[in-house]
Amino acid sequence: MSDSNRDAQHELARIHRSFGPISPTLYNMPINIVDQVLEKLEPMDRLKIRKVCRNLRTCVDRFGIHFNYIIFHIWKNAFELGMDGFHIRYTDAENGGSTVRKDENQETPIEGASSMKIAFQDLKTVLKHTSELRISNEHNEHEIIKSFIEILKSVKCIHVKTIKLVNFSFNDVITILQYCNTKVLESIALWDTHINRQFENIAHLDQWKCAKKCSLFGDKLENKLIDHLFHFQWFQIQLDDFPTYIAIKIRDDLMRRSTFQGCQIYCDTSKSNPIEIAKVFKPDYDGGNEFEIDYSNDNANFKIQFNSFRNSSSRFDMHKL
Predict the structure, then answer these.
(1) Are the beta carbons of 46 and 56 closer than 8 angstroms?
(2) Which of 71, 209, 242, 278 is the most exposed place for a label (fewest CB within 10 A)?
(3) Which residues form the signal peptide (predicted)?
(4) Spatial separation of the C-alpha atoms in residues 312 and 307, rounded to whole Å
(5) DSSP strand pairing (98-102 vs 70-75)
(6) Which domain holds residue 252?
């Protein structure tokens, strides 16, 4: 038992003793006393007691639960929900029910409900209690993704600052992003999402326009689409090649924007000319293929680096000083 849980139970026992032989309901307890008890509990403990009864659910929801991040994995016949390092795994059982395992220590059989149904019910419960949501779709099955989107529809709006989607179709990405609160969402990460297909459709989303950071990984962005990233304060992308004209765009447009903070661009080393890129920012550059340059314009000072990365790729890294 965690120290916080033990302290909370001691506090509850003390409160009950103070009321004499008749145990008060939480509604009869002073709100500040209930809050003192809930404050001692970890988020997972609050989530557990929330399921005990309606009164506890009301009290916990009023007080609040917060997870720094939630990770949800979708596999074939299995799901996993992670909340600040605490993991719950859901698998289908041979009898038609399912099995829920919590951190490898506790396994609970559940009859009459599939692993998908239970996993999505738990996900729905915690969606409103996090600022960062990561969904990894390892088993790309249409019906599962459809059920996930139905969960989002029932929640109506998720108030996350950061969302990361891995291995989703482009159309599903657009659908999911539209359930994010535009005023809250700050960072979008899309990995292995075939982002080049109908890219303009995502660029028209308010969520895309209002976010501050973006990471596109696993797919190489077409060079002509890079302009759609210039409103971000920071972005990370992969290109097939890194032509000089993109470096000029970055210098003459992006780096003059007051909100711009930096970017990382990964490219194929054999299809790029790092020396010509360096000369865009330092015309008298006479060094090699890897460089570090300090660059200044009328608005700000920048550090620019170009280095070998791995698997025949290079990384262009720029940040405002």
Answers:
(1) no
(2) 209
(3) none
(4) 11
(5) unpaired
(6) 237-321
Locate 116 and state its tokens: 């998908």
Query: Residues 15-64: pLDDT tens digits?
Result: 444 434 434 455 566 666 666 666 666 666 766 666 666 666 677 676 66
Number of H helices, E strands in the chain: 11, 14
For residue 102, pLDDT beyond 50: yes
CB 207 within 8 A of CB 188: yes
Phi and psi at 29, nearest 5°, equal: -75, 150
For 168, other C-beta atoms within 10 Å of its C-beta total 23
Does 126 reside within a domain? yes
Contacts of 13 (CB under 8 A, 6+ apart): none
- Does 228 reside within a domain? no
Instruction: Residue 135: name the closest of 143, 125, 146, 123 by CA.
Output: 123
Distance CA 109, CA 143 (A): 24
- Assigned token pair, 129: 């209690």
Size of the chain in residues: 321
Give me 201's structure tokens. 């459709």
Instruction: Give the number of domains in the chain.
Output: 3
Identify whether 226 is part of a domain: no
